[in-house]
Amino acid sequence: AQKVTQAQTEISVVEKEDVTLDCVYETRDTTYYLFWYKQPPSGELVFLIRRNSFDEQNEISGRYSWNFQKSTSSFNFTITASQVVDSAVYFCALSVRYSTFIFGSGTRLSVKP
Amino acid sequence: DGGITQSPKYLFRKEGQNVTLSCEQNLNHDAMYWYRQDPGQGLRLIYYSQIVNDFQKGDIAEGYSVSREKKESFPLTVTSAQKNPTAFYLCASINRAQGTEAFFGQGTRLTVV
Fold first, then answer.
1. Which residues of B touch A95 (CB under 8 A)?
2. Does A64 touch chain B (CB under 8 A)?
3. If pLDDT is split at 50, 70 and 90, which confidence band does B106 have?
4. Cross-chain residue pair A106–B94, CB shorter than 8 Å
5. Which residues from A are below 8 Å from B101, CB to CB?
6. What's the CA gap between A99 and A111, in Å, rounded?
7. B58 lies within 8 A of chain A by CB
8. HSE-CB of B24 using CA atoms within 13 angstroms
9. What is the secondary structure of chain A as a DSSP string?
10. Predicted confidence (pLDDT) per residue in A47-100, tens digit
11. Which residues share a beta bridge with A73?
């Protein structure tokens, strides 16, 4: 069975602080994909990143960076110098061979000015 | 522009009524999904379809039904058997062969009155 755990339910930071959102996944499969999505108040899910199980390289995109570690089954997301516009719910998701997508329960990030 | 369209955005239903949520995509994606999101919670899979005329139950299929008569369309019917249908419903699609991320519609907020 597959599972995604986002232990942080809510995080509150002050603007310009760095913040890391944790994601731990479970799967017995060796081929899988990991994703992060952002859900602003409008409700639509916005795709941020995809990583396949064979690519453990960390990635940086502007103020966003992702740390994928198979040894700990984690795929953590860091926002550097957070901004108020980063306030949203962030979801981590797992897909095994593109059969289904399993989502974590989400982390609500509040960035205060 | 290609994308996924869900309609309506808001829907009100009386108890005991069936209601159908529309999901249409023009991305030529083969797989489509329906998720339910309750306040403060993650996304739970209701049904998914990987090919026309075939679909599979997700984790919370009871009280719901779907059809996939066309590649572009994956409507979800919330039946009177669904005891607590008030929720936010999200439709998604992917191109499994190309290994894309899941593209989401803007969601339908269903309220039972």
1. 102
2. no
3. very high
4. no
5. 35, 47, 50
6. 35
7. yes
8. 6
9. --EEE----EEEEETT--EEE--EEE-S-SSEEEEEEEE-TT---EEEEEEETT----EEETTEEEEEEGGGTEEEEEESS--GGG-EEEEEEEEETTS-EEE---EEEEEE-
10. 999 998 988 888 888 999 999 999 999 999 999 999 999 999 999 999 987 777
11. none
Q: What is the pLDDT of residues A6-54, one digit of tens each?
A: 999 999 999 999 999 999 999 999 989 999 999 998 889 999 999 989 8
* Cβ within 8 Å of residue B98, ≥6 positions away: none
pLDDT of residue B1: 65
Q: What are the Cα distances from residue A9, in Å, to A5, A105, A107, B63, B88?
A: 10, 8, 5, 29, 19
Q: With contact defined as beta carbons under 8 Å apart, do A39 and A109 qualify?
A: no
